[in-house]
TrEMBL record:
This is Tagaturonate reductase. It holds the Pfam family Mannitol_dh. The keyword Ligase does not apply. Transmembrane segments: none annotated. GO terms for molecular function: mannitol-1-phosphate 5-dehydrogenase activity. One of its GO terms (biological process) is mannitol catabolic process. NCBIfam families: PRK03643.1. Keywords: NAD, Oxidoreductase. GO terms for cellular component: cytosol.
């Protein structure tokens, strides 16, 4: 089979305008994909130099001249999508360990405009180190060294400032990275003139990326894709159709990031909090409130969850009827009042994607912290707005409590058990920072005594240190959750879910809060 490279697939070369720290699939499936799209439309006309910060060779990229294929498969607005794109935006891939001098030389290029990174969440951490190492240990150390090299080469010229866009999945990623770089500059005594250039001519932009890019497919799927494409691609990756890159910036940032014009899913705005909040509540919150219930039903993947008649209905109703209405109106863009509902429809399409295997158990990692951050504010907003308890979210919260019921501690892991509708027993790990806390709490509960279960729920809801809020002030919430939890323990998961779906509408419309 013919290999993919620039000889077999000729591609236009462009000036190197972007330096990218990271070779991960998210960067290749979103920013690099979008820059490539702009290049194809004759808009940005810039290539990307990629820095491989971790160990390992760059041979595969060199063999394919930086080319790779993004196979896009899934559902979008009710239509099946099955497309492929050969991305030719990467000019070369360098190793931070082996090619640090060559990387610093890129700082001398007048054409350079943008720096992008995705070094995982732990990558944006302060390490008190010398930036004059070869190379520095941390990503912020490498970035500071690179910026200092550019400052020296161009004498601090304002026109040679850069736009820095971290895509690590932490809030205010740009601001946090800037603070660390400034701290490193002071630690390394780089001088007031550099600090001034850094402050006024290097723009650190908060950003939010949203696209599921599971990466290289399994061997069978990979082979099938290559057969269909008619060439060999060792770097081929899969991605869902949905994509969003929201970047916080002003007109100056827009004038540099011209690639945004090529795709409406690249958004540059002075405030991107709406996009972050929308994703946190609808997509992430929808996952967190639904997954324990689905897993206790014996389901394994998000796609299975969306193919289950009861769970599919639960997910759709909890998102559209209880989560979507709680996003504050002041936050929604005036030019698109339906932005949240449109996003919710996209989320449901994404959950139904049969081409991506998203394991439910993997989503339960740190479930308590996720529930606290993603869903409790939504529940509180719903109560404030509607003056009643969101019944489906209360059931989801009860299922989470049931999921956290460990039966034993084995080899350093707390294990839970659940009975599937077919009568089988599943054993699962509870990978949560609060697993021991819940284990001890559940040991005091008589699951056959409704009063004991109710006391357990009320005690949990009163633990303001755990939830970082006053859940007990939500009148009726603990009692509603306790009712659902008692049903889960006595009637079973499927019967409880079915009962809730039958009564949810009438209960929601008829039960107010005292």
């Amino acid at each position: 089979m013919t290999p993919l490279n620039r000889s077999t697939h000729p591609a236009t070369t462009h000036p190197e305008r972007v330096l990218q720290f990271g070779t991960g699939v998210l960067l290749r499936g979103l920013p690099d994909y979008l820059i490539n799209k702009a290049n194809q439309q004759g808009i940005f006309n810039g290539s990307i130099v990629v820095v491989k910060s971790t160990g390992g060779a760059t041979d595969e990229f060199a063999e394919q001249d930086g080319l790779y294929t993004v196979v896009t498969r899934g559902f979008q607005k009710g239509q099946t999508v099955d497309q492929h794109t050969v991305v030719s935006a990467i000019s070369r891939v360098l190793s931070a360990k082996e090619d640090w001098k060559a990387i610093l030389d890129i700082a001398k290029k007048p054409s350079l405009q943008v720096i992008i990174s995705n070094t995982t969440e732990v990558g944006i951490q302060y390490v008190a180190e010398s930036i004059f190492q070869n190379p520095p240990q941390s990503y912020p150390g490498k970035l500071t060294a690179f910026l200092y090299e550019r400052f020296k080469n161009f004498g601090g010229g304002r026109s040679k400032g850069l736009v820095v866009i971290p895509t690590e999945l932490i809030s205010d990623n740009g601001l946090k990275l800037r603070d660390i770089v400034e701290k490193l500059a002071k630690h390394n005594e780089l001088g007031k003139l550099f600090m001034k250039w850094l402050k006024y001519h290097v723009r650190f932009c908060n950003s939010l990326v949203d696209r599921i890019v599971p990466g290289k497919p399994d061997a069978e799927t990979h082979q099938q894709a290559q057969q269909k494409l008619g060439y060999e691609d060792k770097l081929l990756i899969m991605a869902e159709p949905y994509r969003l890159w929201a970047i916080e910036g002003d007109d100056r940032v827009k004038s540099v990031l011209t690639f945004a014009k090529a795709d409406p899913n690249v958004i540059i705005d002075e405030d991107i909090n709406f996009y972050r909040e929308r994703k946190l509540r609808v997509l992430n919150g929808g996952h967190t409130i639904s997954v324990p219930l689905a897993y206790l039903l014996g389901l394994e993947t998000v796609n299975e969850m969306m193919n289950h008649p009861l769970m599919s209905r639960f997910v759709e109703e909890v998102i559209t009827q209880e989560i979507v209405p709680t996003l504050p109106e002041w936050m929604i863009p005036e030019e698109n009042p339906d932005a949240v509902r449109e996003f919710a429809a996209d989320v449901l399409d994404r959950f139904r994607n049969p081409f991506i295997e998203h394991l439910l158990l993997s989503i339960t990692l740190h479930e308590t912290s996720k529930m606290r951050a993603r869903n409790l504010p939504t529940i509180q907003r719903y109560v404030e707005q509607q003056q009643q308890i969101p019944q489906r979210m209360a059931l989801g919260f009860a299922a989470y409590l049931r999921f956290m019921k460990a039966v034993r501690f084995e080899k350093g892991v707390y294990l839970g058990e659940a009975t599937t509708p077919s009568g089988g027993i599943i054993t699962y790990p509870i990978r949560d920072d609060y697993a021991e806390y819940f284990y001890n709490m559940w040991n005091k509960v008589d699951v056959h005594d409704p009063a004991s279960v109710r006391n357990f729920v009320q005690t949990l809801c009163a633990d303001s240190a755990l939830w970082e809020t006053e859940l007990e002030t939500l009148s009726g919430f603990a009692d509603t959750v306790a009712d659902h939890l008692n049903n889960l323990l006595t009637l079973g998961v499927e019967a409880t879910l079915e009962r809730q779906l039958v009564t949810a509408e009438s209960t929601t419309s008829g039960s107010g809060i005292d």
